[in-house]
Amino acid sequence: MTAAPPLPRTTASGRKSTRRAISPHYGARSLVAKIVVHLCVLIGVVLSIFPFYWLVVMSTSTTAEIFGYPPKLTFGDSFVENVRNVVQSVDMLQALTNTVIVSGACALLVMFFDSLAAFAFAKFDFPGKNVLFVLLIATMLVPGSLSLVPSFILMSQIGWVGTLQALIVPGAANAFGIFLLRQMAAGSIPDELVESARIDGAGFFTTYWRIAVPLLRGGLAFLGIFTFIAAWNDYVWPLIVLVNPERQTLQTALQNLNSLYLTDYGMVMAGALISVVPLIGVFIIGSRHFIANIAAGAIKG
Amino acid sequence: MTAAPPAIARPDAPAPAPAPGRRDTRARRRRRRRENLPLYIAISPFYLLFAVFGLFPILFSIVLSFTDWDGMGEISFVGLAQYQFLVTDDRFWNAVGNTFIIWILSTVPMLFLAMAIAFLLHQNIRFTPLYRVAFFLPNVTSMVAMAIVFGSVFSDTFGLVNSAMTALGLDAVPWLSSPWGIKITIAAMVIWRFTGYNAIIYLAGLQSIPTDLYDAARVDGASLLQVFFRITIPLMRPIILFTVITSTIGGLSLFTEPQVLLGDGGGAGEAGMTIVLYQYNQAFTQFDFGYGSAIAWALFLIAAVFAIINWRLVSGRGDGPARRPRARKDSRR
Amino acid sequence: MLGAAGLMPLAAAGCGSPETISEDPSELVMWYWNRSASPELLDQASSAIPGTDKHVRADVIGTNFDTKLRTSLAGKAYIPDITYINSNNALYFTNEDLFLDLDELGADAVKSDFYEWKWELGITPKGRFCFFPLDIGPTGFFYRQDVFEDAGLPSSPEDVSAAITTWEDWIALGAELKDSAGSFLVNDAQNIFEGYLNSSPERYFDTDDNALYLEDGSAVRRAWDVTITAIEAGLTAKIPRDRGTDQNAAWSSGRTAGNIGAAWWTQILAESAPDTEGSWRIASQPVRAGNNGGSFAALPHTCKDPEAALAFLTWINSPSNQALAYEDVQLFPSTPDSFTDLSYSGTFFGDQDPLDFFSTAAETVPTSFISAWETMIGGSFTFEIANVETTGKDPDQAWADALSQAERVLTKRGVEV
Question: Which of A52, A199, C281, C303 could link C145 by a cystine bridge, Cβ 3.0 to 4.6 Å?
């Protein structure tokens, strides 16, 4: 295994210096520009946060307060009670464990398999590549909602009904992520790097690990986060395929809080909030990689 | 890990393109096969999983579209009857029209806004991590909450938007009971939910743009806007293509927003009925799986046509310019 | 024709997957949804169904209940031994073979305990009794007494009931309400259309699949005409039901002062408009009470032990246990005897006792037949009603469109009318 060559000398600390360098250039306008920029961003931020804020408010309210008129936009004092109701009705620990396993496994597998395929598609030629790629894109257009019955039959035949792998394996690689990472790789992995790795005698998988993975960090982080979220929030398929109360995901458990006539919305909102908090954590951790300097990390070695 | 180094795509070729024709000797072919093996292994997981878990359901749903089935009992073949019904079904064509209108109303502003936000967040402004989280929140705000929030905000008589508009001396708009009001409200909801998402994709893409180009622009004395249009946009082209394609697919299969806002019925006069909502309505409230499948495959055709058109429009002369600087110079004389 | 499995080589090939969910032969798995059975009673049944050596494992299935049930039935795998089914049980008539005839198991022994009209709703067109009665939803006219009083209208439940014995009277009262208080009678026209049909002995079809709605002077047409009259008189607030927040605001503010609602609406109202406590009363709706909602239970053909399962159903739905379920989770009993043990203690309806009102109303609900085809075409009519109401579509055109849409749908589903 030969070490991949360093990046061409442009980017090692390029980002920071670029920023520092650009700003003086716009000195005169920069203050006004900055204020305008912040103002625009702030408006967007307020609009984005507002419904989430309302969700938090609702999780602290009774059903009566939620549907009151005019709507109440300040915190109520039923949060503890709502959470207690959720915890009493749902085996949170069990559901949370199952969901973390499913979402984590999905995210890791998708990140690995998709980036591998994306790197091959973006930077190499091989017979049948175009046809295979078009096929891949076409599968994204295939309608999914009608596959419940045949998928269920498939799972019951291979004995996977009621198991977590029924939620993990079918989605372990997806067209969406391969397409995304291929597009990212097209722009961010310099051919020179791949070429020099080849000259050094590095094989495909070595090149992938040494060059593609570090350079695709932002894209991988994005894919991982949103695969995690999608698996976390998936409802209908887990509902169909999980048949034991001890094998529930958070979503199937929380949906059980809805009742036929009278639903306790304060409790439902508290449940929704509880299920969302870990996702925000995952995002905060994962999104650091969006600003990771492309020259950083593994490549230097 | 020590397999022979595989062939590299020519940097300036309009990707994806096969290697230019060479005279292949048998030995060379054998070697190439061996070189290509890791590549096929790399792409195989998706295709294997698809063959095992995806193919049967797809074939099943194609077959279903030629049948009458209620989702549990007997399946009876009806030939092309479902498709014949579809072609003359006013409700379906209304849904097609609605879907396209909402798609245009939402996708165009959404992608522009997302790019602007990503570009701004990519500048070294303060609180960027906080802003990122803020723009992320719409992705995880629960659907039940959204239904209540948007229902309250856009309520005709009691809503915040109309209260604000009347306070400003404007006429109240029947957001949820007029054909255009419904479409605009749904589009607003789509923009609200997915602008941050696309901005995050763009941000992930922006961070990978080689900074030597910014250095060059600085030397040339380019303005911020010039940097944006001359460097950022061209280099982001593959990612823009990705978002356009996925937004097209997502927009044409729009379902969650109208359902959350208006229920399964699509609102007054079905002004908010989209293709997939109609399909859901037929398959899962009417339990007409045969017709639901026919609608799904009609949508597949429509989406395929539009994906191709979009691909052509956005990728233009191939995504060559978005590659490395060297490639860029080459392809632009 | 071929079975679902015929298309599915995999399903036909193997018998590898179990038909029932639990491997324990003494455990019957039941699917239900939150608050559709008394937790206390389920708890008892989880150790043993009284009089049997079997026990019940009750699994809550949240939303998309029908999808889950259908998928397991279609896949012939992991089917529950007992399943609850909502008031849309007619949707399962076309596949009644998938469910056991409970009369063959001796269910008719308890028939006299139940409201007859509810029992009849569980009988399929072929005359098989597949759907065991759970709760019911007798209807009445809810109204804001304070608004009625301010408008100088009759305001006590007795006076209002007496003033609206016909639909014409009811509309006349609504017109007065509109004139003097500016309030609407109901939030949406669909409420009137369904309120009418739900109280009618005749609906869209009879048990022989004759399309009654096509006949002159049919119940559907009369319901339509009454609804159109109300729309044209401006008595509906034009807020469709899918906009719950708007509807609540209209009721809370008094902008809309009435609703035709079922017994279960009392709790929803109390929860969603608590500020209006004491302002609401319930009057008898025009002509007679109807039924809206109320669930059933069924035994899939794969049920492990039908006798024990039926023993469970008769036990959990006995008059005394339904009374207990009412106190526990407010399920309105389908057995008249339950009410002797029950009393209401609340003030949301002032001094009026809704339990008393609805148990009396339940006596007058007519026996009717809901066809599987009705569930397919009913939407065409309510859709056109909404068009007339919100977009001002010409009623005659709307009626013609509803008929032709209904005919198209029925033809496609292979039903000749």
Answer: C281
Residue B244 touches partner A, C-beta closer than 8 Å: no
Of the pLDDT bands very low, low, confident and very high (cuts 50, 70, 90), residue B8 is low
> Residue ranges per domain, chain C?
13-136+293-354, 139-291+368-412
Q: How confident is the model at residue C210, as a pLDDT?
A: 93
> Among B202-216, B290-304, C190-204, which is the least confidently predicted range?
B202-216
Give the mutation candidate from A78, A86, A243, A246 for the C interface (greatest C CB count, under 10 A).
A243
| Residue A45 included in any domain | no
Between chains, do B68 and C412 touch, taking CB under 8 Å as contact? yes
**pLDDT score of B10:** 41
User: Would the CB atoms of A149 and C75 count as touching at under 8 Å?
Assistant: yes
Nearest beta carbon to residue C240 from set B75, B148, B268: B268
Q: Please give the backbone phi and psi of residue A52, each rounded to the nearest 5 degrees, phi first.
A: -65, -40
pLDDT band at B329 (very low <50, low <70, confident <90, very high): very low
Please state which of the ranges A28-32, B54-58, C52-56 shows the lowest mean pLDDT: A28-32
Q: What is the pLDDT of residue A51?
A: 92
- A101-140: pLDDT as tens digits: 999 999 999 999 999 999 999 999 999 999 999 999 999 9
Domain boundaries, position A178: 91-300
Mutation site, B37, B50, B137, interface A, largest A CB count within 10 A: B137
Taking CB atoms and an 8 Å cut-off, how many pairs form between chains A and C? 116
Q: Which residues of B touch C71 (CB under 8 A)?
A: 71
* pLDDT value of position B13: 37
**CA–CA distance from A279 to each of A164, A239, A291, B205, B299 (Å)?**
20, 21, 19, 22, 32
Q: Is pLDDT of A29 > 90?
A: no
Return the pLDDT at B230.
Answer: 82
Best mutation target, B142, B279, B308, B329, to test chain A (most A CBs within 10 A): B142
- Between chains, do C4 and B157 touch, taking CB under 8 Å as contact? no
Whether CATH 3.50.50.60 fits C13-136+293-354: no
What total number of domains does chain A contain?
A: 1
Residues near A41 by beta carbon (within 8 Å), at least 6 away in sequence: B117, B120, B121, B125, B131
Task: Please answer yes or no on whether B155 and C249 come within 8 Å at the CB atom.
Answer: yes
Supply the ipTM of this predicted assembly.
0.88
Tell me the pLDDT of chain B averaged across its residues: 82
* Chains adjacent to B (≥3 CB pairs closer than 8 angstroms): A, C
A56 assigned to some structural domain: no
Judged by CB atoms closer than 8 Å, whether chains meet at C2 and B74 is answered as yes
Cα of C216 to nearest chain B Cα, Å: 27
User: Do residue B39 and residue A122 have CB atoms under 8 angstroms apart?
Assistant: no
Residue A111 DSSP class: H
Q: What is the CATH number of the domain that holds A261?
A: 1.10.3720.10
- The reply to whether CATH 3.40.190.10 applies to domain C139-291+368-412 is yes
Q: Is residue A240 domain-resident?
A: yes
- Is C243 in contact with B73 (Cβ distance < 8 A)? no
Per-residue b or e along C358-384, where b marks 16 or more CB atoms closer than 10 Å to that residue's CB: bbebbeebeebbbbbbbbbbbbbbbbb
What is the total residue count of chain B?
333
Contact C397, C384 (CB under 8 A): no
CA-to-CA dists, residue B127 to A39, A76, B327, C240, angstroms? 13, 29, 36, 44
- Domain B82-331, CATH homologous superfamily name and number: MetI-like (1.10.3720.10)
Per-residue pLDDT band at A4 (split at 50, 70, 90): very low
Please tell me the distance in Å from B193's CA to the nearest CA on chain C.
Answer: 20
Band (pLDDT 50/70/90 cuts) for residue B114 is: very high
Nearest to B72 among C6, C73, C387 (CB): C73
Question: Computed over its alpha carbons, how large is the radius of gyration of chain C?
Answer: 23
Buried b (16+ CB within 10 A) or exposed e, B261-293: bbbbbbbbbbbbbbbbbbbbbbbbbbbbbbbbb
